Amino acid sequence: MTTDCQDCPLRNRDIFNPMSKEELTFTQGFKTGELVVDPGTTILLEGSNSPQVYTVLKGMGTRYTTLENGRRQVINFIFPGDFIGLQAGLMGEMKHSVEATTSMTLCVFRRSEIFRLFEQYPARAYDLTWIAAVEEHFLGETIASLGQRDASQRIAWALVRIYLRLRAVGLEEGHTVPLAYRQQDLADALGLSLVHTNKRLKALRDAGLADWQNGLLSITDLDTLAERALIDLEKPERRPLI
Amino acid sequence: MTTDCQDCPLRNRDIFNPMSKEELTFTQGFKTGELVVDPGTTILLEGSNSPQVYTVLKGMGTRYTTLENGRRQVINFIFPGDFIGLQAGLMGEMKHSVEATTSMTLCVFRRSEIFRLFEQYPARAYDLTWIAAVEEHFLGETIASLGQRDASQRIAWALVRIYLRLRAVGLEEGHTVPLAYRQQDLADALGLSLVHTNKRLKALRDAGLADWQNGLLSITDLDTLAERALIDLEKPERRPLI
DNA sequence: CGTTCCATTGACCGAAATCAAGTCCTGTGG
DNA sequence: CCACAGGACTTGATTTCGGTCAATGGAACG
């Protein structure tokens, strides 16, 4: 009882490039199944060699690495529409772990099919590279945040980005989106301590800009928040969905 | 009087995947020329739409973005063998700028050829995606550095990575490599102030671990430095060179 | 009801930023 | 040939942002 690519609830969101009927048919053929995991499950493990790659259909997770000193860096949050496992798919070994935060549903693709895809469906291979380029761009933005924004700006930046991303996949309801992470996860993503993260979040709440509590993020004043975050609110560019 | 791909001085370095004679012939055909630029030249400009993509043959540069508040983040340093411009190549617009620090020589490829490459040379297209995945991995490491390492660790980390990378392309001579950046560039890469960067560099010099002066980086004690940097010295993985 | 996990808040401390000179070097023009 | 101006690098003094420590509260759970 898996979801047909034709009926994919993400597909028609306008952050994703549209696909023709036959393209969808192919993607459907590329898909080998669906994986449903419970919160807390490790989907991909750093250093391992996953035989599968995935597209997130539902739910949220974190992508992280752990340093020698035991500290954890959340590289990014994983949302519906994200493609995961490309590194292992091409390079042979995961350089980070991916863990489910909420329950998640993933479309499963066989890793061994990737090369076939390059040989037979150049347009889809092109999409894959495009996805990697988009990811690269986001990571570059994150680097700029960690390097050049102070704690308040970083938090504002993260909340705005998350909010826009979730809104783009249709999870918004009256300026609020579901966001089931712990404050510790955000702290680990931004290179801040839990305590300080907590204090800055409170400040944003008190300022009436954003309120993240009980797994719900409400953006009260997007424009001001974006301004504080040094974010230029432009229309989000489209990207492929596989 | 351009360099033939067959005679490419980088090609046989063992961080790069080997290529057969016919593969080389194709790459040669994909190459449309060579570009030589002076220090200080902006090769790619954020927001612009370059008709070309490049592989660095010689010289060094920086890839950076500028935030709304005027602060500059160096996303990474560009070394021989790096492929640049992929984002513009696929997504249509550069998300960062690339500037030459030393004089540089670049292999030039026509951006419009990229799609043809996907259609006709899947193996090369695969390489391109691989390159993007490798890049993604490095950016993830950088994020972990900015987020979880303190100033001394960050600097040690950067110096080790740079040293290994330059050594891998044959620029090492007796534990020292040429490195013509300013301290400000390193500071902007690591999210540190110039002053503090200077002080930590001095500390490393005094500790007899690494000495970066007058455009030359000498790693006196790689093992200890790597340990301080929380780096696991493993053999560097190979990657494709286009 | 303990236990555990997460959020919250206050007190204190320290790493790194900022501020402020001063030193070299190199290139340039008188 | 020398004066000087601009860049990059150094170094010390001071400030501050954010980390660490410590304690408390609340909710979920067995």
UniProtKB/TrEMBL annotation, chains A, B:
Gene3D superfamilies per UniProt: Jelly Rolls, Winged helix-like DNA-binding domain superfamily/Winged helix DNA-binding domain
Chain ranges of the Cyclic nucleotide-binding domain: 15-95
InterPro entries per UniProt: cNMP-bd_dom, cNMP-bd_dom_sf, Env_Response_Regulators, HTH_CRP, RmlC-like_jellyroll, WH-like_DNA-bd_sf, WH_DNA-bd_sf
SUPFAM superfamilies tied to this protein: cAMP-binding domain-like, Winged helix' DNA-binding domain
Domain of life: Bacteria
Span of domain HTH crp-type: 149-223
UniProt keyword list: DNA-binding, Transcription, Transcription regulation
Keyword DNA-binding: yes
Protein name: cAMP-binding protein
Organism the protein comes from: Phaeobacter inhibens
Taxonomy of the source species: Bacteria, Pseudomonadati, Pseudomonadota, Alphaproteobacteria, Rhodobacterales
